[in-house]
Fold these 2 entries.
Entry 1:
Amino acid sequence: MSVMNAPEREQFEYIEKCRGLIGEWSRKKGRNICYCVVTFGCQMNARDSEKLKGILEETGCVSAPEDEADILLFNTCTVRDNADRKVYGRLGTLKEVKNSRPDMVIGVCGCMTQEKTAAEKIKKTCPHVDIIFGTHNVHTLAKLLYRHLSEHTLTVDIWDEAREVAEALPVRRKYPFKSGVNISFGCNNFCTYCIVPYVRGRERSRSAADILTEVKRLSEEGVVEIMLLGQNVNSYGQDLPDDGQKMSFHELIRAVADTEGIERVRFMTSHPKDMSDELIDAIAAHPKICNHVHLPLQSGSSRLLKDMNRRYDKERYLELVGKLREKIPDVAITTDIIVGYPGETDEDNEETLDVIRKACFDNAFTFQYSKRTGTPAAAREDQIPREVVTRRFNEVLSLVQEMSRKRAALWEGKTLPVLVEEVNEKEEGFVTGRLENNMSVHFKGDASLIGSFVNVVLTECKGFYYIGEMK
Ligand code: SF4
């Protein structure tokens, strides 16, 4: 991507213009202008936040804690109702802060703002918010910031769909040695409980050439671990033109793993209906593709899966798990489970418990069903009473924990490579890293190890993490 396209050039021009205004503001204050981006939700949002941070740093702002920020952005999530409530709660408490620091800039972006009535609601209930934008125009932050800083008015810009590609903009990665790489945006699946296709739009795959160029560049910058990101990575490429360059996901992941300097490749998230044998073979065969598959189950009841429009059933799911465990004996399988979907019976919940027992998940993110306005499931009249959901949820959670403890205990005493990520803030003299299966390990070490692979004996399994000793 050596030649910039028009949207990229436009944004760089706005970054330059912002730099002038931020410089003036900074001179008036006699200090740097500070920013903070608060991220809610998934890995896709985390990646968008890295792009927002990259743009803000390029304008001359410096990163700071939330309470010191002159520019404070909330990158929101709307997958669950309580995520929305959290954002409104946080925004509410900022009213007083803004009264005492009127030059502060507060922005809200992300999935929540893409909901039909959200911008109106924010304007009405949080008049101290200055900038509102959506998921399709994250790259235009500099333009919006410039407009607000020069006109001092509320700036709202929400796009219904993606209009342009601007990939060459700056990014501020959380870790210098690992990075997410978007391979597709949006989703075509319309699971009946999910708001993602409405707020992130239809699935759009990036070209394999652009993805591989980005991976190569990241590797040259010292990145050793790549996480390929998409709402459904398994259907990657299906929307691309048949131009001879198109790749399917298993071809793409092999090409990424073959990139010089890349030591680990992960991916998130897989849809069971699109998980191919070729992908399982690629994970089994390629030493750099991590033996970890996050495969959302949602429910173990075939009746509910049909109702959710998931397009697989209990048997197909268990068949996939069987194949994964057979071809990749040390694979870690993690999942998402929704408890209390409309119409769910005790028998349906028993089916879910049965899959948890049979699949013996390494970990599972268990959620109580949350109504999302605008989705078909939210309009149903057979919503499950809260106390029933809580009872079933507790049953599911305790079985999930029992199974994951069992799985984790399998590795105790083994020596495995760990990519060291950070100094452990709770235990002095310790660092924390990750195994190939994505579990955390805490062991004695110092900051000089960050970003490198070390062999660690897993001396004690603590259920969801290990204590270890460097070899
Ligand atoms: S696959 Fe289903 S649950 Fe996942 S993002 Fe798409 S619609 Fe939502």
Entry 2:
Amino acid sequence: MKLLITGASGFLGGRAAAMLGDRFEVLAPGHAQLEITDREAVRRYFQEARPDLVFHCAAMSDVGQCEREPERSRRINIDGARNIAGAASEIGAKCLLCSSDQVYAGSAVMEAHREDETVEPAPLYGREKLSAERECLAVNPDAVLLRLTWMYDTKTIVPGEKSDFFRGLLTRMKEEAPLRYSLHDRRGLTYVRDVVRNLVPAFDLPGGVYNFGSPNTLPVGRTMAETVREILRRADLDPSAVEGDAGSTPSAERNLCMDPAKLESYGIRFPETSERIGELMAGARLSL
Ligand SMILES: NC(=O)c1ccc[n+]([C@@H]2O[C@H](COP(=O)([O-])OP(=O)(O)OC[C@H]3O[C@@H](n4cnc5c(N)ncnc54)[C@H](OP(=O)(O)O)[C@@H]3O)[C@@H](O)[C@H]2O)c1
């Protein structure tokens, strides 16, 4: 089976290409070989390469950059995604596309979010992801839109790669820097390798939108600071080192936690956020 991965020089696409290479014939064109904003170029690529499966990771993924470059981010995040979904539909390839838990940003709902909730995302990136979901499903009802959480890995795969939550926490602990985490933010965090593993069964999902990441089951109102304390407790490390930071972004209470029930009804599960990070941190603790 041929699997096309777009954005394979990026964080998620790179790991997907490396991990799925022994299971699929992976096609991983770089940006120069496949410009996703060029609809005709995308169609031509699909007609020639004829992938059976598509995992669309190419995007402008930096929330701040989207705000600074709204026109370019619209072309990449909405038009680009629609071009991929449409071209996949034309050749009958099953297509998974990356959306984000940021579609829930700005919601007043403080319970875990469900896919059928009415959302009006505040950040431009969240609005673009929501529009992309709708436009992709309009051109390809069989497309699967994955609402991803903030992801992390335990290791860097490309020199100079930007850090993430896990590696950031580990570095702060090694350097004995203050462990300050938000008192306002509540979210799930997902091990990127769990995302890649769950992509294989996700290719069998019916078209639609799915929360696709680890839930955070700490009681409602618990924040990132408490999540990090729980992670340290699970890794047998001292949780009292964590300080709550009221001055960090976001400045007001935000809940991005996702309800996994829809995905789990298809037999696809992610481990709980602090349980998974705690387990990985327990392994990494030896290097502290
Ligand atoms: N990372 C997270 O924690 C996270 C969380 C939620 C959702 N997501 C979503 O998951 C997906 C993957 O994220 P990521 O973190 O892996 O992103 P990333 O590291 O920023 O990688 C983005 C990729 O897209 C490519 N790209 C950008 N513009 C392109 C264009 N016009 N044509 C072709 N390729 C283009 C980039 O290649 P060049 O660098 O060569 O341009 C790069 O390979 C994105 O949709 C993102 O929004 C990510």
